[in-house]
Write a structure and sequence with these properties.
Structural class: alpha/beta
Radius of gyration: 19 Å
Number of helices: 14
Strand content: 5-15%
Strand order of the largest sheet: 1-2-4-3-5-6-7-8
Largest sheet: 8 strands, mixed
C-alpha cells in the first residue's frame, strides 16, 4: 500500500468518525423532540393506493440468469417497442419514474425497476451483492431478462452512479443514456477535495455505521422520508408533485429494517471501498453513446459544479439544467425534464 492509499484510508476513517458524531447527534435530537413517537411503527404491509394506479403501468418481475435475483418492475407501453429502462436512486423505488412511465409509453416500452434490496425485489444479505460492479452486471442481466439486446437507459441518483459505469462497460447495450443529478465518479472524487462538497456528503460517511442509520430512517414511523422528499432543505420545490401519499410509496418500499439495510449497503459497499480490479475494468472501457445529464440546480446533496465536471469525461456528454429544481428533479419539474428528454431522444 502506497503513501496515497494510506492517506486515503485514514482520511476516510477520520471522516466516518467525524460525521458519525453529527448523525448520532441528529438521532439524539429526534429522540429528545419526540420520545414517545421515536419507536412508533405503523402498518406498512399494504401497498399504498398510489402505487397501484393502473395508469402508471403493469407490475411484473424477472429472474436474472446468473445472479438468480428476482427484480420487480412496473412497465408501461407496448412490449416490443424500443426499451426505456429506468433506474431509481436512494431512498426511492420504481415510483420515482411515475411521470416518465406515462409520458414515454407512446414510443417506448418503459420499464421502471426496483433495484436489488428495494421494495419487492430480492434482498441478498451479503454486502458483496451491493458493490457497483455487481449491480452494474445485474443491470445487464435485467436488459437480457426483459428480452432485449439494448435500450435507452434512464437513471437518477444511485441509479445514475451505476449507469455512468454501465454506459462504459456495456456500451453495446445502450442506444442513448440519460442521467439525472448523479455525477461521474471522477467528478465526485475531485469535488470531495472541496469543503463545500465534503460537508454536503456527510451522510455518506455516517451511513458506514451499522444499525444507527437504519434506526434514523425508520424512527417516528419513517418520518425521515417526509424530510427527504418534502422537507424545506432537501425536498422538492413543487410540493404538489410530491404529496404525502406519494411519500407513502417510498415508506412502503423501505419500511422493513431489512430493506433499509440493503439500501444503505449501496453506500457501505462502495464509498471508500472500490476494488482495484473494477477500477482497471473501467479504465479499459469508455462511453461510446450519446449521454444527456439533466441537473436540478437546487440539489441539497450535490454541488452544481459536479454537472460541468461530469460533462468533461466524454465529448458525447451534454448537460441540461433545470433551474430551481431539487435533487428529485424528474419529480420536481417533470414537464421540463420530459421536454429535455424528448429533445435528446429525437
Amino acid at each position: 500500500m502506497g503513501v496515497k492509499e494510506i492517506a486515503t484510508y485514514f482520511f476516510f476513517r477520520f471522516s466516518v468518525l467525524l460525521w458519525s458524531i453529527k448523525g448520532i447527534g441528529l438521532l439524539f435530537l429526534v429522540f429528545i423532540k419526540s420520545p414517545y413517537n421515536f419507536f412508533k411503527k405503523g402498518n406498512w404491509n399494504d401497498t399504498p393506493k398510489n402505487a397501484n394506479d393502473a395508469n402508471l403501468g403493469v407490475h411484473g418481475n424477472v429472474t436474472l440468469q446468473h445472479s438468480k435475483l428476482k427484480i420487480t418492475y412496473v412497465a408501461n407501453g407496448k412490449r416490443g417497442n424500443p426499451l426505456m429502462l429506468c433506474v431509481h436512486g436512494f431512498p426511492e423505488c420504481w415510483y420515482s419514474w411515475r411521470f416518465q412511465l406515462k409520458e414515454f409509453s407512446s414510443k417506448y416500452w418503459v420499464v421502471a425497476i426496483n433495484l436489488p434490496g428495494y421494495a419487492d425485489s430480492d434482498k441478498p444479505s451479503e454486502l458483496a451483492n451491493y458493490t457497483a460492479e455487481r449491480l452494474i452486471d445485474n443491470l445487464a442481466e435485467v436488459v437480457e431478462a426483459l428480452g432485449y439486446e439494448k435500450g435507452t437507459i434512464v437513471a437518477h441518483d444511485w441509479g445514475g452512479a451505476l449507469v455512468w459505469s454501465f454506459a462504459s462497460l456495456y456500451s453495446s447495450m445502450c442506444d442513448k443514456v440519460i442521467i439525472m443529478n448523479a455525477p461521474h465518479s471522477t467528478a465526485l472524487r475531485k469535488m470531495f477535495g472541496t469543503l463545500k462538497q465534503y460537508q454536503k456528503s456527510w451522510y455518506m460517511f455516517f451511513f458506514q455505521l451499522p444499525w444507527l442509520p437504519e434506526m434514523l430512517m425508520g424512527c417516528c414511523d419513517l418520518q425521515m422520508f417526509n424530510e427527504f422528499f418534502r422537507g424545506e432543505e432537501s425536498g422538492v420545490k413543487n410540493l404538489e408533485n410530491m404529496t404525502e401519499a406519494d411519500v407513502d410509496v417510498y415508506k412502503h418500499a423501505l419500511h422493513s429494517w431489512e430493506a433499509r439495510k440493503c439500501a444503505l449497503n449501496y453506500y457501505r459497499a462502495n464509498i471508500g471501498n472500490v476494488s482495484p480490479q473494477f477500477i482497471e475494468r473501467l479504465k479499459k472501457s469508455s462511453i461510446s453513446c450519446p449521454l444527456l445529464l439533466i441537473w436540478g440546480t437546487e440539489d441539497f446533496a450535490l454541488s452544481l459544479e459536479l454537472a460541468a465536471l461530469s460533462a468533461k469525461v466524454s465529448n458525447l456528454v451534454s448537460v441540461e439544467y433545470v433551474a430551481g429544481a431539487s435533487h428529485w428533479v424528474q419529480q420536481d419539474n417533470p414537464e421540463e425534464v420530459n421536454k429535455y428528454m424528448w429533445k435528446f431522444l429525437n
